[in-house]
Design brief:
CATH superfamily: q2cbj1_9rhob like domain
Number of helices: 6
Structural class: alpha+beta
Order of helices and strands: HHEHEEHHEEEEEEEEH
Radius of gyration: 17 Å
CATH architecture: Sandwich
Distance between the termini: 42 Å
Number of domains: 1
Number of strands: 11
Strand order of the largest sheet: 1-9-6-11-4-3-2
Strand content: 15-25%
CATH topology: Jelly Rolls
Largest sheet: 7 strands, antiparallel
């Protein structure tokens, strides 16, 4: 079973990606094979194996990013075989070449996590931490379990440099909002910049529905290691 469609990865234009405004992003369809996407759908994680993360204080006065989450680590019993196979491809040479080409970098370090969010949750506008090169968000909802009127798309936000990264603007404060497609075999890849504002508006889904995404974070190795070490010290 192959999960990544390497031909589609190779077809993405790195120059176009890096010159996209307000910052590098692309919302491609079909980066996973049809068979691979179907198997990942069939073996999705149940929300019961994720950890609730609600009401956590964020820096700069931004609203909490509420969701259930699970960060991937080798050997986790909760991770089904299909997802282990997919993650092995993400850690393999084809995806590595793709990331190096798109981000124009020689080295990176990945971490990966699942986010499931119920009705009323949102991701307030924010810019990612400096240790990140960017993120690749794979959407896991389909027309069988999601209605686009409920929201869920990643919003690419343009402020023309008006807001400092350590501030807390609202969605309606931005000059332009680009909404990513978020149903089926689609994903959003974006690069971290000083003002790479993004977020997700409050979900309007029924109480028994969840917005589901799998996020691959592309990190700067040295800064990421320093961040992890600092977090370990704080948690002691």
């Amino acid at each position: 079973m192959q999960y990544l469609d390497t031909a589609r990865l190779d077809a993405l234009d790195a120059d176009a990606f890096n010159h996209t405004k307000p910052y590098p992003f692309v919302n491609p369809t079909g980066l996973l094979t049809d068979e691979g996407y179907a198997r990942l759908q069939h073996e999705q994680l149940d929300v019961s194996v994720l950890t609730p993360s609600f009401g956590r204080k964020r820096s700069h006065g931004q609203y909490s990013h509420d969701r259930y989450l699970l960060e991937y680590a080798a050997g986790l019993e909760q991770v089904p075989p299909a997802w282990e196979e997919f993650i092995a491809e993400l850690q393999g040479p084809e995806y590595s070449r793709f990331i190096k080409r798109m981000y124009r970098c020689r080295s990176f370090r990945l971490n990966m996590h699942w986010h499931y969010a119920p009705r009323g949750c949102s991701v307030s506008p924010h810019c990612d931490a400096v240790h990140k090169r960017g993120s690749h968000i794979f959407y896991l909802n389909t027309e069988d379990d999601w209605d686009p009127s409920w929201g869920g798309g990643t919003l690419i936000l343009e402020d023309h440099g008006r807001f400092a990264a350590d501030s807390a603007p609202a969605f309606d404060d931005f000059d332009r909002i680009i909404t990513s497609e978020c149903m089926g075999n689609v994903s959003t890849l974006f690069g971290r910049r000083v003002r790479s504002w993004h977020g997700v508006r409050e979900l309007q889904c029924p109480d028994d529905k969840l917005r589901k995404v799998f996020i691959v974070v592309i990190n700067r190795p040295v800064l990421y290691a320093a961040r992890r070490a600092l977090n370990r010290i704080r948690n002691q």
